[in-house]
Design the sequence.
């Protein structure tokens, strides 16, 4: 079955750019929305954005100016870049596969904690 | 986009039924039949429990059911079991290829 695994730094300095990668195994990129979601410690989930397998992107309006998602199908990976970090960006970042009818997120990666601190 | 409103906590005894509400607006829950529900145990990734309001993914117990009325979606857990103790989040498509999650509900099995 499809499995997703996030990777990236656990600590990033304020004002810098976060780069995370999600490696997909056991399935095809075709027909799905490849999605990033985050969860600040002790808080709820926030949808960050997605990229359709063919390249179209959509982002949370509250993050739109700072975020970029890309796909590298040759490496079975998709990536997140988030610029101009502040402490408020400290969170567990999850990658997930989104349904082709915009109707679900499944499966999810295990999540990776990113702390923003000097 | 504001988060969908869920009760902070819901509790019930084993065997009972509980209901978790998820209230949005006419811009999300009220317009689209694209509400999904996720179960999250502590320190774990969320798990899809319901999609398109009332459809259960393969492998999810039929003790879980979903519905929607107006701007409010609901998840019902029947025959509550200890393993159901977790946080639950709703999520709605909000148009223009964006989504909004609920505030989350902690379910406690007494």
Sequence:
């Amino acid at each position: 079955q499809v499995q997703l695994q996030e990777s990236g730094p656990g600590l990033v300095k304020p004002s810098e750019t976060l780069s995370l990668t999600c490696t997909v195994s056991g399935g095809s990129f075709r027909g799905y929305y490849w999605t990033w979601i985050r969860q600040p410690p002790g808080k709820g989930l926030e949808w960050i954005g997605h990229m359709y397998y063919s390249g179209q992107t959509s982002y949370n309006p509250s993050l739109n100016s700072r975020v970029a998602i890309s796909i590298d199908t040759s490496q079975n990976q998709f990536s997140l870049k988030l610029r101009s970090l502040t402490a408020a960006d400290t969170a567990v970042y999850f990658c997930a596969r989104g349904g082709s009818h915009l109707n679900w997120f499944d499966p999810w990666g295990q999540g990776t904690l990113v702390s923003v601190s000097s | 986009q504001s988060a969908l409103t869920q009760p902070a906590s819901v509790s019930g005894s084993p065997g009972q039924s509980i209901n978790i509400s998820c209230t949005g607006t006419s811009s999300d829950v009220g317009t689209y039949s694209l509400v999904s529900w996720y179960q999250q145990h502590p320190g774990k990734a969320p798990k899809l429990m319901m999609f398109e309001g009332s459809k259960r993914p393969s492998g999810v117990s039929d003790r879980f059911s979903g519905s929607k009325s107006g701007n409010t979606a609901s998840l019902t857990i029947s025959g509550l079991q200890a393993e159901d103790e977790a946080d639950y989040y709703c999520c709605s498509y909000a148009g223009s290829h964006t989504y909004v999650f609920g505030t989350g509900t902690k379910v406690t099995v007494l």
About this structure: The radius of gyration of chain A is 13 Å.
